[in-house]
Specification:
The chain has 384 residues and is mostly helical. 78% of the residues lie in helices and 0% in strands.
Length: 384
């Protein structure tokens, strides 16, 4: 019965995401928006066809790794290095500003210091996977704005890991191990740097091995191994696996097989990636949106305040782009909280830092920022 349910869930995800993507594309919207709304439709709030089981979540994680691998394959490392200081500035402002706004709002709502720190930390998140997908759909992946957004989102992810370790330390013991905080940040940056430098240095080995192989599927298997291996090592070091996959893409982009790998990986990504975005939609509980239910009013009020803080905090990040860059696009590109926001919310609820009402407010902010980003980003690039 478990296998039957899994197969039915997979069918529902693949069919519904494809239908909604077709509708989204035909009305001139981003494909990822269709996948997100497909998840809402088949989730418990509407049809109830899909439960976010552990197996589906793992498939979704593989999906976002493949997405970041594709982004790495399409990216120019030199372009990333060129906008490095701008990406760092955007990431720093995009963490500090929403944290301060969220923290201040929580204190105004008479929350405890620990809750206020957690609420502020949750607003710092940026979904690098979601931002990458939107930029890809809009054909803006390799623009200056696209490079800044992706670079800042990756740094944001690293900073998010550090912040999350601080929050978990506070929740468990009431104290923070600064050694663990510094170690987490250092390992994340060291891993990304060493992986890229060493990988590019020995990328010719990949070409040599593939050229000697004669069996079917040699290229797709040879490409998947670095993705999974780098993701595995990243997880061992408590760094997000998607950062490892992104590094693998940057490395293989330097090989002579780059174009063939990109073509070969697409069919695999087309299966796994929609699962990831659909599950974000599945996690949304539409009952929290009902304003006619008096029990939802505190949640909606809090969500409204957090939404303002979340949007203003990331729009301010665009100021760090400097130069003749479309700062609005950069700020909006940092807007989606996606899976990162859901992780923060889940940790807060599991550790009893926040209540179910506060959890619901955070989920509303995650859903709205994630859904608004592709709409606003498309308009922003069109009017630029």
């Amino acid at each position: 019965m478990e296998l039957q349910q899994f197969i039915l869930s997979l069918i529902a995800i693949l069919v519904c995401t494809r239908v909604m993507v077709e509708l989204a594309v035909r009305i001139g919207q981003s494909a990822v928006l269709g996948e997100l709304f497909a998840g809402v439709l088949i989730g418990g709030s509407v049809l109830g066809w899909v439960e976010p089981t552990q197996t589906l979540k793992l498939m979704g994680e593989i999906g976002v790794m493949l997405l970041l691998f594709e982004v790495g394959l399409k990216s120019d490392l030199q372009s990333f290095l060129t906008v490095g200081w701008r990406a760092a500035a955007v990431a720093t402002i995009g963490v500090v500003t929403p944290f301060a706004l969220g923290y201040g709002l929580a204190l105004l709502l008479h929350m405890s210091q620990l809750q206020a720190i957690f609420i502020g930390a949750t607003l710092t998140a940026t979904s690098v996977g979601f931002s990458a997908r939107v930029l890809h759909d809009l054909g803006k992946l390799n623009t200056a704005e696209g490079n800044i957004i992706l670079g800042a989102a990756v740094l944001d992810d690293i900073l998010g890991l550090v912040i999350l370790s601080v929050i978990m330390g506070l929740a468990e013991s009431g104290t923070v191990s600064w050694f663990d905080v510094i170690r987490t940040a250092a390992l994340a940056l060291l891993f990304l740097s060493v992986a890229i430098v060493a990988g590019i240095r020995y990328a010719h080995w990949f070409t040599r091995v593939v050229n000697r192989m004669r069996s079917r599927g040699r290229l797709i298997v040879a490409a998947m191994v670095p993705v999974l291996l780098f993701g595995y090592v990243a997880e061992l070091l408590h760094v997000a696996a998607l950062i490892g996959a992104f590094a693998a893409g940057l490395i293989l982009a330097k090989t002579e097989h780059q174009a063939h790998i990109e073509d070969t990986i697409k069919p695999v990504a087309d299966i796994f990636v929609p699962i990831f975005f659909a599950l974000i939609g599945v996690a949304v509980d539409l009952s929290h949106f009902n304003p006619f239910n008096a029990h939802n009013w505190p949640v909606l009020f809090m969500a409204g305040g957090l939404m303002v803080a979340a949007v203003l905090g990331k729009l301010a990040a665009g100021l760090g782009a400097g130069g003749k860059i479309n700062r609005w696009a950069v700020g909006i590109g940092m807007l989606p909280r996606g899976e990162v926001g859901l992780i923060f919310a889940g940790v807060g609820l599991a550790s009893a830092v926040i209540s179910t009402a506060e959890y619901g407010a955070i989920l509303l902010v995650v859903a709205l920022t994630t859904a608004l980003s592709p709409l606003l980003l498309k308009r922003c690039f069109k009017t630029a």
